[in-house]
Design brief:
DNA-binding, 11 helices, homodimer
Chain lengths: 228, 228
DNA sequence: GTATAAGCGGAACGACCGCCCCGGTTATAC
DNA sequence: GTATAACCGGGGCGGTCGTTCCGCTTATAC
């Protein structure tokens, strides 16, 4: 059962390595990438040197954790690829990824590309993830459920946005509402019903004019509240 | 014209203060809150001590900049309050805030509550901002354009999400698409047209079952790729 | 012109964090 | 049991960043 791919590890070393990996997963999940290595070492009951012997850099430790998580996510997606309702499958997976990111900040950070670029961190896993997510997406699009103008990268970005929003407000009700907004936004537009449609387009131009005047111009108005 | 609310400042001191404030605005806009004080001092051509004499902490410097920006945003919103098309006014403002956040990372960080809590940073400005944004929102909701189940805090959070997404992908085309997804998600749902509707709800349950199995469970599978 | 105090700049301090090193310990082969 | 090499832990290094301190400079009042 236990594999020893490289030259065998001493028993205590193997134990420590597994322990560090497990603790690291939990710590990253709770605090994200920003958790110090020293804390992981402390929680694992080992010295920092031990962590660094098994994982030469923080990046490699993070990589090991993230890779395992991605593999897990990919497996889950594959379970849904055979589903009979492509739209429901896509949205079920999307929602699952959102809640997953709420539980695992390390994963959310990885998807967001905080600190390390995921494509370099775990190239294979990231590619397979995007591939399988892309298949779920195209099926939903082919079924006419998801708007056709977005691609996998867009979905990934929307996912990152959902994670940020959930961190910004930990209220679960709000999280559900906000995810619902994005899910609805992803759906194919129904034909306009007139009264609900976007409103007077000419006003949109006028609004832009109103706002355009100096919006985002340089400098802080020094006669304002900034100069006490 | 130039006010001197407190005891008068020496001419060079006033000049330096204004210079620091202006440079700080630009630096925060470009790099967000994470820009070091030393760099602001360097760019302003003064020593770090000079920055700290005028603004005792980084927080207070940031506060001065953010407060001015909020005041500016509030003024812009008030211009739109009298608009005849509440829906267009709301969406015009929302879009303006999104592009504003892309230009000004310091502002985006403030809205996201990164580093400092905005409500403590600039309580008055933040309250007035939420108030005026809330009025634009309710009007659009009363007009039946924006879905009624969301509140101001939701809109603020969605804004933060848009900013994150725009940072995650700097492609302007993608940014437009992603903002469009959220704007569409904010619109009142049209009556369902049957074929496009959410799909078999019973499958949604089954999908949850498929995914629920261990999704988000504790621990990393140590027989996986984590144990080379 | 001179006295004086406000203002200036940058060296320095402390805290944090990723990473390295080395003297001591311990599993393992014989 | 013993030799030995792998392994362990934690102190320390180097870098970053917010903040403070102090000797020198200079605007300003008289």
């Amino acid at each position: 059962m236990p594999e020893k791919p490289a030259r065998s590890l001493r028993a205590d070393a193997a134990r420590n390595r597994a322990r560090v990996l497990d603790v690291a997963y939990r710590a990253f999940a709770e605090q994200g990438l920003s958790v110090p290595i020293d804390e992981i070492a402390r929680r694992a009951g080992v010295g920092a040197g031990t962590v660094y012997r098994h994982f030469p850099t923080k990046r490699e430790l993070y990589q090991a954790v993230v890779e395992a998580r991605f593999t897990w996510l990919i497996e889950r997606a594959e379970l849904l690829l055979g589903a009979e309702d492509p739209g429901a499958a896509f949205f079920a997976y999307f929602s699952a990824l959102v809640t997953e990111g709420a539980t695992d900040k390390g994963l959310a950070d990885a998807l967001a590309g905080l600190g390390f670029d995921v494509e370099q961190l775990a190239p294979g896993a990231e590619r397979r993830f995007k591939e399988v997510l892309g298949r779920l997406l195209s099926r939903a699009q082919d079924a006419g459920v998801v708007r056709p103008d977005i691609d996998v990268a867009d979905v990934k970005t929307l996912l990152v946005g959902c994670h940020t929003m959930n961190r910004h407000r930990d209220d679960p009700d709000a999280a559900r509402r906000l995810t619902a907004v994005i899910r609805d936004g992803l759906r194919t537009r129904r034909p306009a019903l007139g009264i609900f449609d976007s409103g007077d387009p000419s006003f949109a131009e006028r609004a832009d004019e109103i706002l355009a005047d100096g919006f985002g111009a340089d400098g802080v108005d020094s006669s304002g509240p900034v100069s006490p």
